[in-house]
Design goal:
By secondary structure, the chain is an alpha/beta fold. The protein has helices at 22-26, 33-40, 54-69, 93-100, 117-130, 154-157, 215-237, 254-263, 275-278, 285-295; strands at residues 3-14, 18-21, 44-47, 78-82, 107-111, 136-144, 162-174, 180-188, 196-198, 211-213, 246-249, 304-311, 315-322. A five-stranded mixed beta sheet has the order 1-7-6-4-5, sandwiched between helices. The chain has a four-stranded mixed beta sheet with strand order 8-13-12-11, sandwiched between helices. Strands 2-3 form a two-stranded antiparallel ribbon. The chain binds oxa(dethia)-CoA.
């Protein structure tokens, strides 16, 4: 039986030029390279320049994804940007990306699901494709988190970085065993919002605010809920976890990634880890990891991938797809 599915036709990513190492941060904040590496797995992160906004990072990643897909701007009929650091309160960052890439009029909007944003955005694009509304969707996770950090809070400011990753999701006629999204799962629990949030916002303080996090609580929920989400999509798709070729988790903490891998009984050699080089880039971290593993030849066409993430909300989710 043939049906329309959505497949990843291309991926791309972008990291701003400026690299800030743990040693650089130790000159500004009471911390050390040793603490940051052992507690989080991060060695360095990239910070955007003052004149770069999130849509610039997003557009750079998106151009590469379009090129990788062999498509032009005129082929795109949906743009979704997952971000918590939009250029402006409104309009969406997606419309600025659309304008920067010369994408003709089409649906364009942002998704605010923090670190789970890319999984949420892929899932939304997949739905639009299988409903027949869209042929090629540009799905981007992009963040300029450096504008959000409290340099007096060493427990958060050392963890985050800026960057963007993108995927082109395209309609393809497939069948059983074919490429495409096999299952997705999204969830959120607003009762846990107090554990990770910005303490500002347009309708509360009329400021952007700073990142606030109860690290230990988020850590615990991340391990539980990311693992649970991967189990759910595996069950929904009827695949066993040893069939997963690559686990591409949110890059927030190497210890969270390892604990999830262990709980899911996934061989560490099948886990994509890129946190060392860019820190926690929220919604950009999964597409950054995906792009790196595709570029270096680890992830190949036909591989079964499990993407999963948790972040502010708390919001979490997973997506199982054949690449
Ligand atoms: O992307 C969204 C999801 N976010 C996450 O998943 C993050 C989840 N949480 C974490 O990754 C970890 O909880 C952290 C990396 C944030 C912290 O690691 P931890 O092992 O939970 O450390 P902790 O917060 O329990 O702090 C341990 C100690 C404390 O000192 P005392 O109270 O034991 O004396 C902190 O004050 O480490 C201290 N500390 C630091 N020391 C040096 C906290 N931050 C720093 C720092 N440098 N930057």
């Amino acid at each position: 039986m043939s049906f329309v599915n959505s497949v990843i036709a291309g991926v791309g990513s972008y990291l701003p030029e400026r690299v800030v190492t743990n040693h650089d941060l130790a000159k500004l904040v009471d911390t050390s390279d040793e603490w940051i590496r052992t507690r989080s797995g991060i060695a360095e992160r990239h910070f955007a320049s003052d004149d770069q906004v999130t849509s610039d990072l997003a557009a750079n990643a998106a151009r590469k994804a379009l090129e990788d897909a062999g498509l032009g701007p005129e082929d795109i009929d949906l743009v979704i940007v997952a971000t918590v650091t939009p250029d402006r309160t409104f309009p969406s960052t997606a419309v600025y990306v659309q304008a920067k890439l010369n994408i003709p009029p089409c649906a364009a909007y942002d998704i605010s699901a923090a670190c789970a944003g890319f999984v949420y955005a892929l899932s939304a694009a997949h739905d639009a494709i299988v409903r027949g509304q869209v042929k090629n969707a540009l799905v981007i996770g992009a963040e300029k988190l450096s504008c959000f950090l409290d340099w007096n809070d060493r427990a958060t400011c050392v963890l985050f970085g800026d960057g963007a990753g993108a995927a082109v999701l395209s309609a393809e006629h497939g069948g059983e065993g074919g490429r495409g999204v096999l299952a997705s799962y999204m969830c959120a629990d607003g009762r846990l919002a107090c554990n990770l949030y910005s303490d500002g916002g347009p309708s509360s303080t009329a400021t952007v605010g700073k990142v606030r996090m109860n690290g230990r609580e988020v850590f615990r929920h991340a391990v539980d809920k990311i693992s649970d989400a991967v189990m759910r999509v595996s069950e929904r798709a009827g695949v066993s976890r040893n069939q997963i070729d690559w686990f591409v988790p949110h890059q927030a903490n190497i210890r969270i990634i390892e604990a999830c891998g262990k709980r899911l009984d996934i061989d560490p050699a099948k886990v994509i880890v890129t946190i060392e080089k860019h820190g926690n880039t929220s919604s950009a971290s999964i597409p950054l990891a995906l792009d790196e593993a595709v570029r270096d030849g680890r992830i190949k066409r036909g591989d079964l991938l499990a993407l999963a993430s948790l972040g502010g909300g708390l919001a979490w989710g997973s997506l199982l797809l054949r690449f």
